[in-house]
Each structure stands twice: as C-alpha cells, then as structure tokens.
Design a protein that fits this description.
Elements lengths: L21 H10 L5 H33 L4 H8 L5 H17 L19 H5 L11 H9 L2 H7 L3 H18 L4 H15 L5 H18 L10 H25 L7 H7 L3 H13 L21 H12 L15 H15 L15 H8 L4 H9 L10 H5 L4
Length: about 400
C-alpha cells in the first residue's frame, strides 16, 4: 500500500515515521488478520516498538556522523557513541549491512540530492521572469582543471574531459535558452544530478565538477551589475552554489582521500568551496601554529604607526595574526583581504583610484606582511557570488578599527 510513497519511513528512510492508523487497519484487513484480536494488538505494539527503535537508531547515527565529521573513522565513531562489538551481533549486522548496501550503495546515508524536490514548472509562467541574454565560456575552467591534472582522474573514471564538457555544454546551452524559466532550469539540473547518482563514487566526482563548471560559466559570462537579468542570474548561480556545497560536504566527509583523488582535492582547495571547508575543519580542529624559525617581518613605513600597531596587537590577541605578523591560515583569505581593505581606508594609504573612481587597495603591502598571495583575487572570488564585500566573520575585523 505504501511501496511507491516517498513520505513514509517504511521504505527505509529513518528520518520519516512509519505509517500508522487507518493504513495499518486496512492492511491487516486485506491480509485477512482483522478478526484476530491478539495478532492485531501484537502487530500494532510491535510497530510502536519499531518506531521507537528507529528514532534511537537515527539519533545514534547522527552522533556517529558528528564524530566522523571531526575526523574519526567509523569504528572510532561507533565506540565514542557507546556501541560495543559483539561477534554474534556483528555477524547479523554484517549480513544486514551487506543487503542494505546492495539495495542502496550509499548506505548508511541517503543519495546526494534525494531530498531536493522538483518544483512545478507551471510556476514559471506565474513568476513573470523576463528572459535575458547570457553567454559564457569554459576556457578558464578548462585551464584550471588541466593545471591540477583533473583530466587524469576523469580518464580513470571513464568520462574524460570531453565527456564532462559535453555534459556542461548541453546544460549551459539549455540555461541560456531558458532564462525566463528558472524552475525548469533547476529541475533540469536536478535530473542530471539524479542520473549521476546511479554511479556511486565517480558520480559524485562528476556532480562536483558539473556544478563547479556551471558556476565558472556564470563567472565568465557577458553580463554585469548593470545588465538586464543580472539579479535573476545571481539567484540561479547562488542556487547552483548551494547544491555544490551539499555534494562537496558529502565528498569531504565520506570519501577516502588518496592519490587518485589528489587532483580533485588540489583543485577544490583553490575554490571558494575549499576556503569554506578549511574554515570548517579549522573550527573543528583548532591548532596553534608555531613560527619559531620564521623571520620577524619589519613593518614598512606606511604601517609603522602607533595606531596600526594597536590594531595588529588586537588582531594577534584574537588569533587572526601571528606574532611575526603573518596571517593565521585557519582564518579565510577573504578575511585577510578585508583586513587589508579596512587598514588602507583607516590609514589612507590607497594607491590611487581606478577608472570608476574607486580607491585602489595596496594589496602587495599586506601580501608581503601576511605571507599570502593574491589577496585581490580572494576579494574578487567573493564578489562573484555577492554584491558587497562582507566575508564571513567580517564583524570581528571591524572591531579592530573602532
């Protein structure tokens, strides 16, 4: 009676409750047990016990998942939650897990995006979105993948660069031809992600590169803030980014990292997703970096003021900057760029103005002091997905300049 339903837990989803009430009564009736009072009573009681057991199991799995996210392997996480090994029980569990993995290769987790519901595309006619012209290219994306040898990984999983670009080309062409139908575009992307779920492991690699490729296509398109459709394109790009974050967290937490995954890992480390993941890891595993062998950097004349030294002292005390003035890399590069921008404004040491009359930040001054490179690029990466430069944690920087 419920085999085709997706809103009940009888089909294996622990997060949903088991069916009860009139459906159970009807099922017992159809099975010929309605007149067996004891059987009905026992069956309903068993259902209650089973539901309670599922809730305990879900709570335990959530606790295990948190330990896994903090770096423990499954065995360690299970022990920390309180599970103890029993050979007889383990044999039963192994058989159950083996069957569960056969039915669902992603066990004990659901497939990525299985909770992402497709919307009614008739909504597009009611949303009154006006079509806009947008066109982009994947050349910069291609160069980055080649630089990090991601093509080697794609060859190993059997799709190759050409296969990935064929997938992306079709989606980007569909996107630019349907800009007035955002729901249809999202559903099309969802269909593609669902198809890739049929290939556990390599499917998630392709999902990541597929979504990142769409974002790169957006970033190298021919519209800007003054163009028609900019806000609509930004909303769609943000939606794609959220999906990318979903599958990347799945990948970072559950996949074993080895020499095969190294190209993808190295590439992702250069993206905004990589920055976010490093922040998450740093918050879970805070560690004090030591720089005993590093040379103390002498402040340049522009920064050698009593006022700025007080700012640096506060930043050091709050863990943003080390005693040798290098940036604490557990903090994001965007925050370092924000610090540099605030300092230039505070000290009035900008390097002139650009063609739009905006003050130019003296990036090199802070790149040298912080021992970082391309702070301008860090800001630009943020601005590709946001309208203002307020990276996560910017308020903590603001207080140094009050």
């Amino acid at each position: 009676m419920v085999k085709d339903r997706t809103d009940v837990g009888d089909n294996g989803n622990l997060t949903l409750p088991l069916v009860s009430g009139s459906i159970i009564d009807e099922a017992l009736k159809q099975a010929g047990f309605a007149d067996d009072t004891k059987f009905v009573s026992d069956f309903k009681k068993y259902r209650e016990i089973e539901q309670q057991a599922r809730e305990i199991q879900l709570k335990s799995l959530e606790a295990v998942s948190k330990h896994v996210q903090k770096g423990s392997n499954i065995d360690e996480a299970m022990k920390k939650v309180g599970f103890t090994r029993n050979d007889e029980l383990q044999s039963v569990l192994d058989n159950v897990i083996s069957k569960a993995k056969k039915d669902n290769p992603y066990f004990p987790f659901g497939k990525p995006f299985e909770d992402l519901i497709k919307e009614d595309e008739d909504l597009d006619d009611l949303l009154m979105v006006k079509g806009y012209k947008i066109d982009g290219n994947l050349l910069a994306y291609h160069n980055d993948l080649q630089k990090h040898k991601v093509s080697v990984l794609l060859d190993k999983i059997g799709i190759g660069l050409k296969g990935l670009y064929t997938l992306l080309n079709g989606m980007c062409f569909f996107l630019k031809e349907n800009t007035e139908k955002p729901t249809r575009i999202q559903n099309k992307i969802k269909d593609c992600l669902d198809n890739l779920n049929e290939y556990p492991g390599c499917g998630q690699v392709i999902q990541i590169l597929f979504l990142q490729g769409i974002i790169e296509w957006f970033e190298h398109c021919d519209i800007d803030e003054k163009s028609k459709g900019y806000d609509e394109a930004q909303i769609l790009c943000n939606w794609v980014y959220e999906r990318l974050m979903d599958v990347c967290l799945y990948y970072f937490m559950l996949f074993n990292k080895n020499s095969d995954s190294e190209p993808l890992d190295n590439y992702l480390a250069t993206t905004q997703i990589g920055e976010v993941w490093n922040e998450i890891k740093a918050s879970q595993h805070p560690q004090q970096e030591t720089h005993k062998n590093q040379k103390i950097i002498i402040l340049p004349n522009e920064l050698d003021t009593d006022g700025f030294k007080k700012i640096l002292k506060a930043a050091i005390e709050d863990g943003f900057v080390h005693n040798d003035y290098t940036w604490n890399k557990s903090k994001s590069k965007q925050l370092a760029a924000y610090f540099a921008q605030k300092a230039c404004e505070h000290l009035n040491i900008n390097t002139g103005t650009d063609k739009d009359g905006n003050k130019k930040i003296n990036w090199k001054l802070f790149e040298k002091m912080f021992a970082l490179d391309n702070l301008r690029g860090a800001k630009n990466d943020w601005m590709k997905l946001h309208t203002t430069f307020h990276p996560n944690g910017y308020a903590d920087i603001d207080k140094f300049f009050e």
